[in-house]
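Running this now, will post back.
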Amino acid sequence: MHIAWFVLVGTVLIAMAFSGHLVKRLPLSPAILYLGVGALVGPLGARMLDLSPQDSMPWLELLTEVAVLITLFTVGMRLRVPFSLSAWAVPLRLATAGMVITTACIALTGWLLLDLPWPALLLLGAILSPTDPVLASEVQIRHPDDRDGLRFSLTAEGGLNDGMAFPGVMLALGLMGLHEIGDMGWRWLAIDVVWAVSSSLLLGWLCGYAVGRSVHALRQSGHALEAEEFLAFGVIALVYGAALAIHAYGFLAVFAAGAALSYCERALRADKIPVPHQDGAHSSRLIHFSAQSEHLAEVAIVLIIGASLASVDWHWATVAFALLVMVVARPVSVLATVPLRLIDQPQRRLVAWFGIRGVGSVYYLAYAINHGIDGTVARTLTSAVMITIFTSILAHGITATPLMSRYMRLRRRQPKSGSS
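Update: finished.
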């Protein structure tokens, strides 16, 4: 198996290097191609990889954990819109109240179609509530100075809610007896919600800002920043480890660190203090390196998802559940939390459709199963999550290019009004 994996990954990476310009011309997201390759080399095709997700959860949790961390740091670096309640209103609503509504809608859908106890339904809703900021590259921010309101909202939402899913997961695990939530849920509310969320954002912001100031001091001393890969992985590891040490959410902290590092560079770049050796593009190089790492992680995870599709239960009820998550749960949460005064109707319709599920949901699934969920519940959860991700990658990957092309044509015809 290891030999087949190395041969497969090597072949895919070389093919990516030579065919990148061709892939960009296709009216499909690259994730669909990786998914197809994974299915072809898995039990459904050449049988080079025989993966059962339920038997691979320990290393799958680690792999997706690393992938999500790299993604969140990169997303934070890209988001160069200064923080304000008005500018961030849409992603904040989607990552808070929107996630609660999404979780409830998914749990209700599961209650109608899946044979699961209600704590497991809550867990399923929490696992599938975060969106993925990467898998449909057509709808995310294209470059750090992209100010399009739709792209910003979807990208920022994906960065925030990949960490904001933890409280729901921990509550569900507590109700299943696998996590301490205290009498009447007081410990969950105080520690898993208030403390973990607030301390994560504060820790990540302070660490990212401190690193940004240090880079600025290095530049002022006449030295250029080198080895950006060390800085990127160093910040991710330091912030993530520190967050876990204080019982905070590492995903949120790493996202905040990336955003703070980008903000610090913008703020200090505006200084009138002369810098002997200007290195103002350091965040652009960091973003480029982080994006390449993010892409590699995306390829690996989607290949695994494709190869594991033969091991899940393709019951009609599970497929119907996956479809309803896309066409009911996501639109309901958007319509309930995002009023038209914040974005216009075409943007809101696209936000309601592009609730892309991906790597974050795989991580939370592995995290939950590794915390003691087994048997029929684990198998049902695995099938529901994997089929939903497969359906999302397929449907959103096919529709992203034509819908976004039409959206951009409409935007060009309208007079410019800020970032909307």
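The first helix runs from residue 2 to 25. More later if anyone needs it.
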